[in-house]
Amino acid sequence: MTWTWFVAAATLVSALLWLSAVGWAVVAHRPVSVAADGPTMELRPEPPALVEFLTGGWEAGRGAPRATLLDLAARGFLALEQTGPDPRHTLVRIRPARKEPPEDLLPYEALVLARVTALASGGVLPAGALARGTEDEDRGWWRAFGRAVAADARARGLARDRYPARLKAGLTLAAALPAALAAVLFLSLVGPGGWFMSLAIGLVVWFLGTLLVSRLTGERETPAGVEACAHWLGVREWLARDESFPGLPPAAVTLWDRYLAYGAATGVARSALAVLPLGPRDERRAWSTYGGGWHEVRLRYAPAPARTLRPPRESVRLALRRIGSASIVLLLVAWWHAHPPTVIRLPVASIALLVAEVALLIGVLMGSRWLWTGRRPVIPLAAYVYGGLLAFAGFTGGLQISGEWAVPPQVVWAQLPPVLIAGPALLGYLFLLASALLDLSRRAWSEGEVVRLRTGKGLHHLALDPGGRTAVTAWPVRPELYGALREGAVVRVLRGPMLGHVYEVVLVTPSPQGELFPAGYAPDEHTDGHTDEHADGDAAENGPWDEDTGPPAPWAGVAALFARGDPKEFLPLAEAARILRTELREAEYSPHLGVRTYDTADGEAFLLLQTASKVLGRRLLATHKRRATPVGAGAADEAYLRGRRMVLRRGDHVLMLQLPFDSDHSVLPALAEAAARRMVSPSP
After folding, report:
1. Alpha-carbon dihedral 653, 659, 665, 666, rounded to 10 degrees
2. Are 37 and 235 in contact (CB under 8 A)?
3. Is 143 exposed, middle or buried (0-12, 13-18, 19+ CB in 10 A)?
4. Residues 6 or more apart from 348 whose CB is under 8 A from it?
5. How many angstroms separate the CA atoms of 537 and 82, rounded?
6. Residue 277 vs residues 84, 407, 517: alpha-carbon distances, Å
7. For the residues of 202-245, what is the DSSP string, one character each?
8. What is the percentage of the chain residues whose pLDDT exceeds 70?
9. What is the pTM of this model?
10. I want to staple 312 with a disulfide (CB 3.0 to 4.6 A). Which of 259, 404, 438, 439 is the partner?
């Protein structure tokens, strides 16, 4: 036993020493802080992305691709044109003669130019459309960009590996000592028969150590890098002396040439950086102009519990109902405690009748739980536990076949579970009632700019900047309030102080941000954009039947019950293509099934739509909403999402949307919101 304790202590000490060595390596090999040489306007040969790498701690930041974009514009590969008074009204125009990157472009510059060219439509791209996708979708591109910048810095002698190869090799070899001691410790615990398992444990510990060492990556300075960084910090000081420079728009590159790109690389040209969101947007930061001037705000997303999204009036009714049910349980327990019975005579003559009576009682409780507690049967659960403990105590404490039960003293402990369950529930619902009443009486208006709208996992968040803030909270809102909002709009929001429920959102000033595709634009080279309104009207009015081949008069009522329509009425091709940001064309249409398919340009089925009304609509909704998640879809009465399929209802109409397995399913709510606006049931 002494030997085992000695090995355990040695294993712990060696592991702590090894972790301390890793910590020392991280601290001792971090890049040094560099002081500026002094204000200067002279430019060195390093490109802006490399300047951002040097001045940003020898790590490529998110401003490097935007600075590279400005530099490409200054060198004539792109053109930045401002079409309105707002810098956000900036167009990125690809130079026709420079569609292919020349050989003198650096690898990361070619990556930026290729990405912008791929996003452009007809050689033109609004600045607001530069931010596309999520971090997951952009991770591969960003990793390649960062590696290319670091490789260029090493090739110029401005950076080197932060952790030398000898240091990492030494840490890897040193990890073998705690691994060997861990194997010996396990062997001493289990005996000689566990040598194979002890060897496996030693290898696992050593593998974890090498995995940690492999995570030690990064770059640090060289003498030449320190000299270059000090010079560029001086350039930053010189640019910051101009008070107008931070507010310059991207189109000012025609006057400032490459200075604007270097200002963006050093963080001085903040306005130009905000207008060119190349790459995925940062969900934790946003830019706002409310209160005058561009400023950045940090975002925090508030949780979205049911009490926040639910109207406070419903919370009051729910709290009163559950307070009543919890009080009944507690009163029954109190009565039992005040008048403890010693003998109970049950109105049964046999155990069989007792079992039947108990089964009947359980059925009544299960049938009434929805009346008392809705979807969370907290109080019936307390009743079940209480009754179960009483029944157990009865069968083990003197219940006779005649129905007489001599109640034992230990039954008093059966009063504890319902109190522990119903007591906290009662306090929680009292707090909910007080909060909802305060929310109804103290709600207030606030005005500001919508800086972020985010939809995910069926939740909608709205971030409002009231001005003068460095951090704002994104509030959860109901889907019907979210659909008509756009980032950049100035709105007034009526919100409660306690539960945080958003009652109303009133638009004050529309958003000045432009769209990548104008409304009604269909990127489909096979159509001319003309729509046959008469044909759509006939389809909406007559359904799958036309005037000549319609059903006989006796079957007209039956046909109305099983009416279907063309899904194109609810989600036209142009609207679907705009939301999906891809080229689509109409394909198969089955009038008798109400199914229409939109294909891609290469003929593959991409979006399937199915619609129905009346009886078939209710059947379609009931079929697809099983095991689905309720979500919001704008003006829809109800909507359900499951994987790649979404079904929604408005009035008598039901529409089902389905995407391929390998597509981005996060666009389904946007498609559903667009379709819900057109799903208006005819007047009876």
Report:
1. -40
2. no
3. exposed
4. 354, 357, 403
5. 42
6. 18, 75, 17
7. HHHHHHHHHHHHHT---EEE-HHHHHHHHHHHHHHHHHHTSTTG
8. 72
9. 0.45
10. 439
